[in-house]
Amino acid sequence: RATMKSLRFLSAEAFVSNAEFARKSLSAVAHNLFPLLFKASYLLEQGEVIHDLVENWPLVDFNMGKLLGATLDYQEDLSHRTCSVCLENCLTGLRDYVLNNFSPYMKRLKVVDLTGIKDVEVQFCECKKTMGRWARTQLLSKLCLELVVYLQQARCNPGTFEITIDVLIDLFVTERNYELVVEALLKKCCCPLKICCVAFRSDNLTLQKFFYIIKLADPSLLRKLEIVHNVRLEMEHLEILFNSIHFPLLMSLTLPARTFNVRRFTATDEQMLTNIGEKMSEMTQLTELCMSFSILTGRLQKLLSPLKTPLKMLDVSNCSLNHADMAYLANSFHANHLEALDLSGHDIPELYPSTFFKLLSHSSSVLRSLTLEDCNIQDTHVNMLILGLSPCQKLHEFKFMGNPLSSQALKHLFTFLCGLPMLKNVEFPVPRDCYPIGVTYPIDDANVCRFDHQKYESVAEELNLILLQANREDVKASTPLFGSYDAAVQETNNELGAYLIKSFKETLEKFTTSLNKMS
After folding, report:
1. What was the pLDDT predicted at 510?
2. Half-sphere exposure of residue 121, counting CA atoms within 13 Å on the CB side?
3. For the whole model, what pTM was predicted?
4. How far is the CA of 309 from the CAs of 252, 279, 286, 312, 369, in angstroms?
5. Does 181 fall in a domain?
6. Residue 55 near residue 97 (C-beta atoms within 8 A)
7. From CA 347, how far away is CA 320, in angstroms rounded?
8. Does the bond joining 436 to the residue before it have cis omega, within 30 degrees of 0?
9. Neighbour tally for 263: CB within 10 Å
10. What does UniProt give as the signal peptide span (predicted)?
11. Among 197, 207, 300, 391, which residue's CB has the most CB atoms within a 10 Å radius?
12. Nearest CA to 283 among 311, 259, 256?
């Protein structure tokens, strides 16, 4: 559906479509038209015009989320377009803003906010080449270092050294760009562009490197911390992290798999867990917590009860929760505030059906995203599930991959889902009757693709027809067999794969050495 454009926006498009003319005429453009021209240039992918607009930016702030978001002149939100041409010109324009001594405008820019850029799976830009979070981290670090070198070597206008611009960014650091980012952070004091890390994601890093760079990144500004793949952070390391670094503004924390991986808690482990809970309670802004694939059996209350702020997002997928954990969660003050909940990997119908539905009823007025993958939900549980989901009228997203449901049960469930007014995304499993008889759940990776694809396509068509007949074309229904799209993994999958192969090789070598010693 085409989005309406105002006459102002159409005029802006016409102006920037002739790049040569637009660049020559910028000095005659009123300051308040720069944001309009920037969005029009971004839509048309006029890289050179974007560069010159940023190089001569006459305003105090430059906020990508606001500039590309819905405006009165053009309602479409372009912040999900991570177009490489546009973003590269935007960042090089920022570097040249510092160096440009001949700009007709007084340099007023103080804050650049790059955090509003959203990385999504489907790109609509014509060049089809994206610049993800990792690449943005890489390029900004490189440009900052170029600036430092240039300012040290060249005879610049004395006013250049007085320029100070805070650049708010979501950093993404892996082994491959670690050295560059560290150098840029170390030289921050000498650079007019000050990297201000608002969110930090770390993959494929040794603990030593992670601890070093997180301190450099200024944790006092950090709102979101994601320690995800191949960072071997365990409970004792987490305690050291929280004891040595203060995160006063932290709102969202993601911990790597197996951070809490103690099957038999000793008195020392219990004390460690208590300390971690107390340190988390000092993070008064914390509302999002992800700690999947850990062993938290019977320990959830100890970890979450000290928190003074209710959680809005909780991911405890595959954490071996028992009835006491679920009872605590259902009766805790977090329950009434949960907007996103992931309980995947727990046999909910068998272990704690009534407690789960109590939790669902408490969070129903605010719940926007629910994930129940590999939860052993069968046909006999569908009516109960419908009953539990009925009050969840604000639900935007429901994911229930990996459950042994038949085609008939899925049709019944989809008919109900059509009635949830705000639902936009559904991830449903391959129907049980598409797999060979005798398949066991959860289905392992080796067998997950061994189903009747023709039959699945036929069922998927019927499910989409149910949505269509209910006028719910706005709902996207899919079956991502290997998990939902993750922009960060997509961007760094080669490095991630190489790291996994290296780890596997090291494990084999250790195993071989042990065998040789035994023999």
Report:
1. 66
2. 5
3. 0.91
4. 12, 13, 7, 9, 20
5. no
6. yes
7. 10
8. no
9. 7
10. none
11. 197
12. 311
pLDDT at position 256 is 94
Q: What are phi and psi of 31, to 5 degrees?
A: -55, -40
Q: Is residue 323 part of a domain?
A: no
d(CA 25, CA 83) in angstroms, rounded, equals 25
The low-confidence residues of the chain, meaning pLDDT below 70, are 1-2, 102-105, 155, 158, 495-515, 517-519
Is position 13 within any domain?
Answer: yes
Q: Per the structure block, which two tokens stand in for 371? A: 């994930």
Q: What's the confidence (pLDDT) of residue 106?
A: 77
Helix (H/G/I), strand (E/B), else coil: 166: strand
- Give the residue from 161, 238, 163 showing the smallest Cα distance to 207: 238
d(CA 37, CA 26) in angstroms, rounded, equals 10
User: So what's the pLDDT on residue 496?
Assistant: 63
**Cβ neighbours for 115, distance < 8 A, ≥ 6 positions apart:** 64, 65, 168, 169, 170, 198, 199
Are residues 103 and 56 in contact, defined by beta-carbon separation less than 8 angstroms?
yes
Q: Tokens at residue 110, please?
A: 């103080």
What is the total count of domains within the chain? 1
Runs of H (alpha helix) within 396-471: 407-417, 453-469
Angle between helices 178-186 and 133-153 (to 10 degrees): 50
**Residue 493's CB: how many other CB atoms inside 10 A?**
11
Task: Give the amino acid at 206.
Answer: T
Domain range enclosing 109? 7-131
With beta carbons less than 8 A apart as the criterion, state whether 198 and 249 touch: no
DSSP string covering 219-248, please?
A: GGG-SEEEE-SS----HHHHHHHHHH---T
CA distances from 320 to 146, 161, 209, 263, 266 (A): 50, 56, 31, 10, 18
Beta bridge partners, 199, equal: 170, 224
Dist. CA 462–CA 472, nearest whole Å: 14
Q: How far apart are CA 288 and CA 325, in angstroms?
A: 18
**Torsion of the alpha carbons at 272, 338, 418 and 432, rounded to the nearest 10:** 10
Nearest-5° angle of CA 279, CA 285, CA 291?
Answer: 60
Q: Are strands 252-254 and 193-202 parallel, antiparallel or unpaired?
A: unpaired
Is residue 393 within 8 Å of residue 423, measured between CB atoms?
Answer: no
